[in-house]
Amino acid sequence: MPQDHEIGTRLDQAASLAEILAAGFDAFEAIRIVARDHQDRVPELFAAFMTTANAAVDGREALTIAPSLSPASQARPGQILAAGTGTREAADALAALAAALGERLSQAAALAEVPGDQAACQQGAAAAWRICELMTRGEHDARLR
Amino acid sequence: MANTTPVFGDFLGPADEHIAAAVSFSGDLPYDAQRGVIRQLDRLLTTMARFLTDLPPPDDSQPSAGPDRDTPARAASAQLALDRAARSLRPVAAGITAAQARSSHQVAGHLAAAADHLGAGQDLLQTHVMLGPGGIRIRRSYWAPVITSEPVTSARLGVLARYTQNLALWIGQQARRHPAVRRTPTAPQLALRAAEPWLLLASAAIRSAQPARHPGPPALNLLEAIPVNAPPPRPPSGTGEPVSQLCEHIPLTAERVRQATFIFADGARWSPAATSASWRYHALAAAITGHGNELILRTLAERARQLTLEPDLAAMLAAAADDMTCAWQSWRAITGHWDILTTGSSPHAGTTPVAAEIADLALRTGRLAYRNPDWAPSHHQASPIRDPADLADTPGGIIAVLTAVHHATDAITRVAATDHQAVAVAVADNRLCMPTRLLPENYDIPSPYARAPRSRTGALLSGYDTAITATARAATALDDLAVFVSAPSSALGAIPRPSIPAQEDQRRLPDQMPAPQPSGVTHMPGRTEHQLRKLHIRDPALLLRAALIDQAAHDLVTEATTRARSRDRVMTQIPRSRPRIGPIKRPAQLASQDTPTRSQPDEQLTHDAETAQPCPTASPYQSSSAPKAHSPRSC
Prior knowledge:
The complex is a heterodimer.
Chain A: H1 6-13, H2 17-38, H3 46-64, H4 87-111, H5 115-135
Chain B: H1 9-23, H2 31-53, H3 71-93, H4 98-104, H5 106-126, E1 129-131, E2 137-139, H6 144-147, H7 150-175, H8 187-209, H9 216-225, H10 243-265, H11 276-306, H12 311-340, H13 353-369, H14 388-391, H15 395-428, E3 433-435, E4 449-451, H16 454-484, H17 527-534, H18 540-572, H19 587-592, H20 601-611
Helix pairs in contact in B: 1-5, 1-7, 2-3, 2-4, 2-5, 2-8, 3-8, 3-18, 4-5, 7-8, 7-9, 8-18, 10-13, 10-15, 11-12, 11-13, 11-15, 12-16, 13-15, 15-16, 17-18
């Protein structure tokens, strides 16, 4: 799914492992920020957004210790949602970003030569897929407030 | 699956019945039966003496007044008297096997069964405490302070005193019976005559050892509610549990959380699982559980109104829901702190034993709160909140659901205290840091992590303080509700809950108590007993009588003092207004209403930028994502 925001573009265009890791770190951070921002808006989705933010921290933590990730940050996560975006749309956007992230990190894990990088990418990918699952709508969604 | 955890009452009740059945026998015992009865009496008295030997010293953490500190010494005297009684019987009991004795007569059978049950009950109590090196008494469960508390000790001694007295009276009757065929007492009867005065003395000594003379039914109920210290089986985590099953399973899951929390408390410093990931996950689950509990309580309040139950009930439920809101918001704030703070990523750290249990608790609470029987904390399984009639169709249903919420909240209070202590240790050990990439780019630190500024770790610990206070307040509101509706969880309110530890106590392990004092060290003889000891009187019977005289004198003075104070109070009493309707507010609750609201992580980040001195100096990343305050009412 094409990502029409900066972090999505960075993920798409990352060419090296270091770039994928850096974009992945910022993507997790962007997901955490959005999840925190939306967790209190719909009571029925409180648990889902809280758990998503937690998974985003898990993913970010996994990538933090990757040997190929530069400790110094060159970028910021940036906005992935326009102001006033609804909670369901936010969840959709997070699910899409997490899916893209999971895919890129899975590819990176296959390419990584250093075991530390490989483990970081695998754990990051697992966290991303978990976020994707957490944010995907279900059959009850239409009946939520 | 019903709660099958054995409790002390499971053994005390049958022991009670068997002793009552034995002492109700008023006929003639054949000679062989007399020997069998004596053998079983010996066993029963020995078991009862063990109760006194194992009597824990008073809990030093609890203030005690008056003669209570004499309890171990007086209990030792009673134990001595019981031992003498058993010794008087022993020669006659020799030569007859336990099996022969048990089957010799129905009375012997009842006495044997009573000894079995009391022994098992004693074993159950022993699962909560163990003696460590140097005789240090180590608590092995959160129930241990209850067992050593004065009311429960009094209740325990009261039961023993009653048994001893009833047995003494019955022995006296049997010892003086003169069957038509024999005019002289038999050897067993002579043994009973020898044992009788010792039993009477033991009964009196046990009564004088009671810290509270009339502990009352609540203390006895609490004694009976003490469970064996072993986790209940994990309820199967299938989907589609109906409300009734969730109400059965949540207390079991909560008990597993409590036990796992108690066990993990010891591993705060050395366990590989003592990481920010674990504490973050605990906080997440606590927030979700609390959020679900708030929804449940509001739904119950609505249901109480629909069923036109007492208006007080709906008001109390609504107030408890408000307290619950503050509780889960405090946990949500902690998760916000853990967004930034970390102990570092450690792929092999594993999870705490608490994590799996608290995840179950959050899941079941959610399934009780929401309509979807397969609810999970995901968008996919999100569903509308349950209808009030679906949650509790009858008033009994309200009690069942309330019991589940009560257990869940009580369990979270223990997680709060344990995690607070563990995090405090991590802070003291400088284990908390922040990802370097979250710092501004001009901070060129060649490491993935920078040490967390003290202002940030301080805010985290303050967050735990708030969570402890807020969760305890919610639990207290539920304690009151449980008593109000006579819920089965009423006993939870009597178990001491952890509070915010004093700064200087934070490094002390909570499960260590001072070594028990040798029996007699704390015994301060009264005036009469002192006179006898000056005369070098060592006869326990005389010493016990002296102790009783002193105790009676003390009681008389206490009663007179109470009456005098009561008279003075009546003279000066100002007419009181009618008791208000609504939830009972305890002093701690009232005091905590003035607790300042927590600072938000966002503010903290700004502050960090100005003050942090990590290695090297860190100026944290400015986040716009930290949890925002959402207060339906002031917490």
